[in-house]
Amino acid sequence: MREAVIAGAVRTPVGKRKGGLSSVHAADLSAVVLRALVERTGVDPALIDDVVWGCVSQVGDQSSNIGRYAVLAAGWPESIPGTTVNRACGSSQQALDFAAQAVLSGQQDLVVAGGVEVMSRVPLGAARATGQPYGPAVLARYDDFSFNQGISAELIARKWGFTRTVLDEYSARSHELAAAAQDRGAFEEQIVAVDAPAGETTEGGKVTADEGIRRGTTAEKLANLKPAFQDDGVIHAGNSSQISDGAAALLVTTPEKAAELGLTPLVRYRAGAVAGADPVLMLTGPIPATEKVLRRTGLTVADIGIFEVNEAFAPVPLAWQAETGADPERLNPLGGAIALGHPLGGSGAVLMTRMIHHMRDHGIRFGLQTMCEGGGTANATVVELVS
Asked: In this protein, which residues make up the domain named Thiolase N-terminal (predicted)?
């Protein structure tokens, strides 16, 4: 049976809202990581069978199959196709799953997976600004619930009994860990710098590092922020993921093809899983998705050396940890989206890139990544270090 490996992983810095990447078109930002991927691996782009690209808000700058235009913006041969995937926040993680499935099935041998989101230019919710996506039957089924992720985060915090102090302490930890990782150079090799033109809110220039980290953040400082979704709520801007800009790309192939092309596999794709959950709580999908992917691999939580659980809101990884019993020291050891940002359609590939490099740098055999998604779904993926 064929195997799939990831033989390259690169990302841009994650830019903050209206920050250094805000003047870059999504196709051009995607092209940065596509070009870097082939430069760093040495693969001829003409050999790539397909590009599977995640993007959530597929309107305006990100409309009309941004995956295809990313290929053209990169200057790659016109013969290379590209497609765009939307599984909400898990879009580029799903892109990886689709790429791996194509390789495992034998239909394709060399596929690029990844994604992009430039939220500074295409705001969150822009794709549904002119319509109602749920429809009367869905709304009636759930008693006209607003399907607001912030409210869902409040419900999760209430269900698991997380106080605001607990959430804010976790959020401060995210910034602390991210700052420490940045200071020791943990992200440098995986990042490709972006030459950004001047824009409305930026002077332009080379962007080389993640912009969202707020050094010196403490739970006491976060306590001064107003709740964002309910007057008496516990969710606010400081314990939520940041609006961000960014892109990442992964090269997926077989071990045999990698050897033929002189590529060095980083990790072996062990399994992927998708799960649905209550769309009112919405953000609890990583719990059943983790259970499903572990069953498929025959592994246990104790076997996993690093967990990347997307920090959409602080209650999400905390509820996941409470239900799985995972070692909290192995949970988001580099910080997460609260500190490092969440460029929606690019986040799955960004997290995978961070996790792969951390596994290689520390000799960690198994890593598990999971991502909550709008509508109550979630992806989970397990990869194994290639020694």
From this structure: 5-254
User: Angle 191-206-125 (CA atoms, 0-180°, nearest 5)?
Assistant: 75
Q: What is the pLDDT of residues 79-126, one digit of tens each?
A: 999 999 999 999 999 999 999 999 999 999 999 999 999 999 998 888
In this structure, what token pair is assigned to residue 41? 């691996």
Residue tagged 């590092």 (tokens): 209
* Half-sphere exposure at residue 143, Cβ-oriented, CA atoms within 13 angstroms: 1
Give 80's contacts (C-beta < 8 A, 6+ positions apart): 45, 46, 48, 50, 51, 71
**Distance from C-alpha of 239 to C-alpha of 339, rounded to nearest angstrom:** 9
Nearest C-alpha neighbor of 304 from the set 250, 380, 206, 230: 380
Q: For the CA atoms of the chain, what is the radius of gyration?
A: 19
357, 353, 367, 359: which is closest to 304 by C-alpha? 367
Q: Which pLDDT belongs to residue 266?
A: 98
Whether 371 and 348 have beta carbons less than 8 Å apart is answered as yes
Q: How far is CA 136 from the centre of its chain?
A: 31
Helix (H, G, I), strand (E, B) or coil at 190: coil
